[in-house]
Amino acid sequence: MDDVESDVQNSCRAETIDTQAADWMLAKRMGENWSEPDQRSLDAWLEESPAHLLSYWRLEEAWNRAQRLKALRTPMREPKALQGTRSKANAIGIAAVLIVSAILGAFWLREFQNPTVKTYSTPVGGHLTLALSDGSKIELNTDTVLSLSVLSKRRFATLSRGEAVFEIKHDAVHPFVVSVANHRIIDIGTKFVVRRGAAKVRVALLEGSARFETNTSSSETQSTDLVPGDVVIATRNSMAVSRKTTDELKDSLGWQRGVLIFDNTTLAEAARELNRYNTEKISIPDPSVAKLTIGGTFPDNDVTALINTATQVFKLKVDRRNGEIVITR
Questions:
Q1: N or C: which end of the chain has fewer CB within 10 A?
Q2: Cβ of 208: how many Cβ atoms within 10 Å?
Q3: CA-CA-CA-CA dihedral for 240, 276, 209, 105, to nearest 10
Q4: Within this chain, do residues 130 and 193 fall inside the same structural domain, yes or no?
Q5: Do residue 96 and residue 124 come from a single domain?
Q6: What is the CATH number of the domain that holds 313?
Q7: Range of 104's domain?
Q8: Shortest CA distance to 302 belongs to which of 273, 327, 267, 268?
Q9: Beta carbons of 187 and 168 less than 8 angstroms apart
Q10: Which residues neighbour 200 within 8 Å (Cβ) at sequence distance 6 or greater?
């Protein structure tokens, strides 16, 4: 296949993605019966590829800008009888313009900026540091998958699994956006850590400031501005912000030095943390044993310290069964 044919195919593929993103945007914004299954289907499509997510977020930003401009240009409130019909017609018109703009914009990006998306990953117990050309730095923790796209006018990352620390060199004109599940973090000159679990996302702001946004199943976008010490715990339909001390945040990043720091931590939680870094997993089937608490600094790649604590401090039994470490009374 020659270069021209390849470019044409890539262009057609990208236009298809932009059109699909526009279809999803229309369905969500205009659909009166948008449901939880619809949201799950959209989330699944976004998860398929960083290109899907990039196209959708770009289109949503354009939509929001258009809606703000529309609001500023409205001189007075219309009669209620006309509001519903006119609003829907205007929204459809805006959407049609956005579809065309997105496709043309994507074509311009491909032709003149040659964007690329690169995916980086770490194995269980692995660690990787990425140094970006703009001076930013990203550290990937154990069992992590991150896709990165750095264009001349956009810096964009998708955390598909695991945990990463972002130390971003701020550029007000070209913001850095991190997407994880149905949430995103927009830097305002900052250092933050993002961890993606099975059912929730945790974002902790270490330095600077950032904005956290989430799309709920009700088609609404919720957002909050973060300051150092803020920790966001977000699920598909909820978002909560708490405060942590500087020492607590530093302790949570012990993995950067190859250690895990526990402070009045239950054995169950300590085991879950160690399981993230080791192929040999720890199991604590007895709830009364799981609730016992420990403290101290443990190597993240060695379960021996926890086993010694279980046997010597709590006088517990440790058995190895089918490649699993089982702690019991």
A1: N
A2: 17
A3: -100
A4: yes
A5: no
A6: 3.55.50.30
A7: 3-112
A8: 273
A9: yes
A10: 233, 234, 235
Please name which of 230, 270, 238 lies closest in space to residue 254, comparing C-alpha atoms: 270
Identify the domain boundary among 96, 112, 128.
112
Q: What pLDDT, in 10s, does the model give residues 206-261?
A: 999 999 999 766 557 789 999 999 999 999 888 999 999 999 999 999 999 999 99
pLDDT of residue 6: 44
CB 190 within 8 A of CB 209: yes
- Banded pLDDT at 123 (limits 50, 70, 90): very high
Pair 76, 186 in one domain: no
